[in-house]
């Protein structure tokens, strides 16, 4: 798959958000009265709007991994858990952050971020799912909104100030940290103590969700216990342990609750192992030598039925470093054994592109789309191959449809801008770039691009009418965005 510029480290946003705000609930042994708590101050509709603001600002700082293969995996895993969760009142969106540190966090509006480093430490898909289920519980129990309301009751205007500070963090982490600490006037230790008394609720609800979704409920205490033991004597804790402290009592409580569910023995998840290999190869900042050493070490101790996922990871390292013969040697047996595996199709498509074997890639992708017509991975790959093969109209048809169906996917708009640029269709290119700017809350740039697109379009044409209509929408979005910000 084509790759956008790699994202920088996520810095401090996730640690600050979860340390300060993520896990506040009422009694840990009973569900809170969600109907009254937080409803008077922060409605679900407003939470969704804040969530949209945060996501746009985070896209601007580019910490998000815009990899269609990994995005499809984490969305599928997250929504499998959501389908088995209670009290779901918001849409959910799951995304990956390129960061070596172990962490996951829940934002407003059902937006849940997972650090790529978490894959390196979770031994099974159930362990990864246990962390995500915990964060889903934070959302369904409205912990963030209830925390803000609690602070607002203790200090005038604290809620507005804290929400505003979180926006600052999304745009400029250092400024936001200073602002947040000043406005709350509460020590980090005090926040952590409050968190320790209530994190158990998210554990309890998360374990129930985990079990209903068919995962191993013991995965949560296993993972938390292993982390606690690993960092027991270190002075520098990972963000996850700062934001989600793991005292022995909490681990014991999660173990006791998991014991209430039947034990589940699951075979290793192929998709999880493939996602993990892809992240090690591309999203942990490893050099080629370090990545290959990691894969070779794992191959020596891997069971025979888990070696193909590791060889897949090695093939990506070779691909990304121009060693196509070595990549092909590993990939051909994999794609032959599982011709409809999206991970393998994506990798072999990359190889075909580098070798300029466009027809091979197009044939394979079109055949795969017959069985998985809604796959984002296949649609984007096919559009990209057609673009590289200079079949611009066919590529454009796919991308126009895709961007209409997935308006928040940066990949579709980026490819669309490239397509128009290669055809010297400046109006279309400007419009696509305007959408990219809007997804990053760069409203002035988005409006400027669409204004230029409308000017370049043929007078009275359908394109000009479409650009003018989109301009009106963007101005409304900008006004709404600024109105929310000015309310702080």
Elements, N to C (H/E): HHHEEEHHHHHHHHHHHHHHHHHHHHHH
User: How much is the radius of gyration in Å?
Assistant: 23 Å
Q: For the largest beta sheet, what order do the strands appear in spatially?
A: 1-3-2
Our measurement of the CA-to-CA distance between the termini, rounded to an integer number of angstroms, reads 41 Å
In terms of per-residue confidence, which ranges show pLDDT below 50 for 5 or more consecutive residues? 5-37, 169-194
Oligomer: single chain
Count all strands and give the number.
3
Report the biggest beta sheet as strand number plus sense, adding barrel if it closes: 3 strands, mixed
- Beta-strand percentage? under 5%
Fraction of residues in helix: 55-70%
Mean pLDDT: 83
The dominant shape is: flat
Structural class call reads mainly alpha
Strands, helices and their partners?
Blueprint: H1 13-21, H2 44-61, H3 68-82, E1 93-97, E2 104-106, E3 111-115, H4 117-121, H5 125-140, H6 143-154, H7 158-171, H8 173-184, H9 188-196, H10 199-212, H11 219-230, H12 239-243, H13 248-258, H14 270-282, H15 288-301, H16 307-320, H17 324-337, H18 342-354, H19 358-371, H20 376-388, H21 392-405, H22 410-422, H23 426-439, H24 443-456, H25 462-486
Parallel strand pairs: 1-3
Antiparallel strand pairs: 2-3
Helix pairs in contact: 2-7, 3-5, 5-10, 5-11, 6-7, 7-8, 10-13, 11-13, 14-16, 15-16, 16-17, 16-18, 17-18, 18-19, 18-20, 19-20, 20-21, 20-22, 21-22, 22-23, 23-24, 24-25
């Amino acid at each position: 798959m084509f790759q956008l510029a790699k994202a920088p480290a996520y810095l401090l946003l996730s640690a600050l958000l979860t340390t300060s705000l993520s896990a506040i609930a009422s009694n840990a042994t009973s569900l809170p009265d969600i109907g009254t708590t937080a409803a008077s101050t922060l409605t679900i509709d407003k939470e969704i709007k804040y969530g949209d603001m945060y996501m746009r600002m985070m896209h601007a700082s580019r910490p998000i991994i815009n990899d269609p293969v990994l995005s499809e995996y984490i969305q599928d895993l997250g929504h499998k858990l959501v389908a088995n969760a209670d009290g779901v009142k918001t849409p959910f969106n799951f995304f990956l952050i390129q960061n070596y540190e172990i962490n996951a966090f829940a934002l407003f509006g059902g937006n849940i971020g997972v650090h790529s480093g978490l894959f390196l430490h979770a031994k099974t898909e159930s362990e990864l799912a246990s962390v995500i289920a915990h964060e889903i519980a934070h959302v369904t129990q409205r912990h963030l909104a209830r925390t803000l309301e609690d602070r607002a009751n203790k200090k005038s205007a604290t809620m507005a100030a804290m929400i505003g500070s979180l926006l600052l963090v999304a745009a400029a982490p250092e400024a936001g940290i200073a602002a947040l600490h000043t406005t709350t006037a509460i020590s980090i230790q005090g926040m952590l103590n409050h968190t320790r008394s209530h994190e158990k609720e998210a554990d309890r609800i998360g374990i129930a969700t985990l079990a209903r979704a068919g995962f191993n409920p013991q995965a949560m205490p296993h993972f938390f216990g292993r982390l606690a033991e690993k960092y027991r004597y270190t002075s520098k804790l990972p963000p996850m342990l700062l934001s989600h402290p793991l005292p022995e009592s909490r681990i014991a409580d999660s173990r006791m609750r998991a014991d209430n569910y039947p034990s589940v023995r699951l075979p290793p998840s192929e998709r999880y192992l493939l996602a993990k290999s892809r992240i090690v190869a591309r999203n942990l900042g490893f050099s080629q030598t370090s990545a290959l050493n990691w894969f070779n070490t794992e191959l020596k101790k891997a069971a025979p039925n888990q070696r193909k996922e590791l060889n897949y990871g090695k093939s990506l390292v070779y691909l990304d470093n121009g060693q196509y013969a070595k990549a092909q040697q590993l990939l051909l047996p994999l794609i032959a054994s599982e011709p409809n595996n999206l991970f393998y199709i994506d990798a072999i498509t990359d190889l075909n592109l580098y070798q300029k074997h466009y027809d091979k890639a197009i044939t394979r992708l079109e055949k795969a789309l017959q069985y998985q017509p809604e796959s984002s991975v296949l649609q984007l790959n096919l559009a990209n191959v057609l673009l590289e093969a200079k079949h611009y109209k066919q590529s454009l048809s796919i991308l126009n449809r895709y961007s209409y169906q997935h308006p928040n996917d940066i990949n579709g708009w980026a490819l669309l801008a490239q397509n128009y640029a290669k055809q010297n269709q400046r109006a279309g290119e400007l419009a696509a770039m305007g959408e990219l700017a809007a997804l990053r809350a760069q409203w002035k740039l988005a409006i400027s691009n669409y204004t230029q697109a409308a000017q370049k379009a043929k007078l009275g044409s359908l394109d000009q009418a479409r650009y003018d209509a989109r301009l009106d929408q963007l101005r409304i979005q900008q006004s709404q965005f600024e109105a929310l910000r000015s309310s702080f």
